[in-house]
Amino acid sequence: MKTRRATTMSSILAAAALLAAGCTGTGAAGTTTSGTGPSSPTEQQAAPAAVVAAPSAATLVAPGRTPAQITTAVSRSLFTSAPAVVVASSTDPDALSRGSEQAERLGVPLLLTDGTAATTAAAPSGPTPTGSAAGPTPTGSAAGSTPTGTAAGSSPAAADPVATEVARLKPTTVLALGPGVADLLAPTGIKVVTDPATMPPLALPEPLSDTAVLISAAPGLPAKATALAVTTTAKAAGARAVPVVGGDPRTDSRAIEDLSTAKPAHVVAAGTAFGATATLAARIAVATTGVQLPGGGQVVLPGRRLVAMYGYPGSAGLGVLGEQPLPQAIARAKRLAAPYVPLSGDTPVVPTFELIATVAQANPGVGGDYSYEAPVSLLKPWVDAAGKAGMYVVLDLQPGRANLLDQAKIYEPLLKNPHVGLALDPEWRITDSQLPLQQIGSAKAAEINSVYRWLADLTAKNTLPQKLFVIHEFRLSMIGDDEPLQHDRDQVQLLIHMDGQGPTNTKDSTWAAVVGAAPKGVPFGWKNFYDEDTPMLTPAQTMIRKPTPSMISYQ
Questions:
Q1: Which of 138, 189, 251, 350 has CA 20 to 30 A from 490's CA?
Q2: What is the dihedral of CA 495, 501, 503, 506, to 10 degrees?
Q3: What confidence tens digit (pLDDT) does each residue in 159-216 have?
């Protein structure tokens, strides 16, 4: 447990500006006391301070959905006790402004009610999610229970999370701001004041410099009020405030930068919007690496549109990618992607190589599996150059009679690169009685799922950004129905890529069939063929497909 003596002042405008800009702060450290009253050296040393402590867990979800639930859960996670507490109405802008300033100045938590005393008392406190710790709360204390030592008159308000948290902190004074707040706190038996000038002088706690607090940067007044209060409480405790757009820090480039710079030993997530503790812990581990994908962030989809050249290096007969040397291929890929930029709004467009890593062939080959496996050394220069050029890479497998998982493992060294994903081409997966180019192959869902799980485990083990996992399909029979396709791993994004060629109406029929049969919620890709499509669609025509393709390939 830590204490420090210092003063810090901030206005509501400064706090709001910092939050909107994604800035962080830990408050100022010094030797003067906060509050009013005597300020001699002797009196400064005697001024009490809140006691703060980092959570015992490396990652903690402070549960809650309403302003009252979230702000009290964050306070519980960071503060063991406080000589004063500030409580403000979440619906009163002036109370929020003054409350933020006073709580940061005093180094104490800012708690919010959900409105008036009547509406707040009626709000349920909500259960604590499995895996969410209670921070400094003594073991065995439930989020909504009355702490030992609560005044006898506190039972009418004990069910309210704010009154319960105030009682746990054991302050001598509570500053109540906003309509109905003082009435809500009256049953606790603690001195309640409404004038900041009457607050006692306090020192600030020693900063929790190894702790970060994730704050949901969501729209709407309740969310903004909660974000301001949580930011204030974090700064009062000396923790780092990290705004996050959405519930996944991997999707927010600024949050990634903040976490990778701070590398906190402890992270508190404010509210259940951040998900389960184990999932969040894995996401934070990725975010703190600071490695971002082309186009920003660490989640491949949604968040970008991939425009890919398909083919095999040095072979013009296997796709447009092999029609030119590597430097010219990079330049061409960027030219190919450029027309999609104005068609994609705020979604970044990422030039992409889809490299054929294993090539189905008419003869058995050395391994007898009718598939030539390109050496890693051949593909690595293309992977490395694409990464340096800000491009994504997808390695495509045409397995012949080989097992898809066995082939995928060959390219593990390349797949350890953050900007490299994997594609499977079931068209070329044949049985022992079939030959390439004579039949359209298929892959069992169980075999595809085995690759999916392996890729997810590889990504998790190496703390990598999310990977793209593409399955090419132009006939429903190409993907077996022996089991459902997996798409539940956070580390991998499944995409179904429609590879049909020919007249536009034929391709549209194939598209409708593929989209209709795919697992719910997965994104889709579309392929344009220079020679086989009649005619090949323009970028604008391609983008009117519904749903809008997240990946467009050219062959």
A1: 350
A2: -50
A3: 699 999 999 999 999 999 999 999 988 888 899 999 999 999 999 999 999 999 999 9
Q: Which residues have CB under 8 Å from 332's CB, separation 6+?
A: 309, 320, 324
312 DSSP β-pair partners: 315
Percent of the chain with pLDDT over 90: 80
Q: Which helix (H) or strand (E) holds 88?
A: strand 84-89
Picking from 195, 169, 209, 181, the residue whose alpha carbon sits closest to that of residue 79 is 169
State the Cα–Cα distance between residues 222 and 218, nearest whole angstrom: 9
Distances in whole angstroms, Cα of residue 150 to Cα of each of 145, 187, 193, 276: 10, 11, 19, 31
CA distance 144 to 128: 9
- Reported in sequence order, the residue ranges of 114-258 that DSSP labels E, i.e. its strands, are 173-177, 191-193, 211-216, 240-244
Dist. CA 352–CA 243, nearest whole Å: 31
3-state secondary structure 453-497: HHHHHHHHHCCCCCEEEEEEECCHHHECCCCCCCCCCCCEEEEEE
Mean of pLDDT values over 273-291: 97
Name the pTM for this structure: 0.85
Strands 79-81 and 51-52: antiparallel
Q: What is the pLDDT of residues 233-272, one digit of tens each?
A: 999 999 999 999 999 999 999 999 999 999 999 999 999 9
The residue assigned the tokens 């005619």 is: 535
* Two structure tokens written together for 354: 């889809």
Identify the pLDDT of residue 159: 65
- Compute the distance between CA of residue 120 and CA of residue 106 in angstroms, rounded to an integer: 25
Q: Are 372 and 401 in contact (CB under 8 A)?
A: no
How many residues are listed for the chain in this entry? Answer: 555
| Integer Cα distance of 360 and 342 in angstroms | 37
Distance of CA 233 to the CA centre of its chain: 23
Name residue 266's beta-bridge partners.
211
Q: How far is CA 75 from the centre of its chain?
A: 23
HSE-CB at 277 with a 13 A cutoff on CA atoms is 17
pLDDT in tens, 146-174: 333 333 333 434 469 999 999 999 999 99
Nearest to residue 48, comparing CAs of 272, 220, 199?
199
Residue 151's CB is within 10 A of a number of other CB atoms, namely 12
Pairs from 92-99 (Cβ < 8 Å, separation ≥ 24): 92/177, 92/178, 92/179, 94/177, 94/178, 95/177, 95/178, 95/181, 96/12, 96/225, 96/228, 96/229, 97/11, 97/12, 98/12, 98/177, 98/196, 99/175, 99/177, 99/178, 99/229, 99/232
Mean pLDDT computed over every residue of the chain:
87
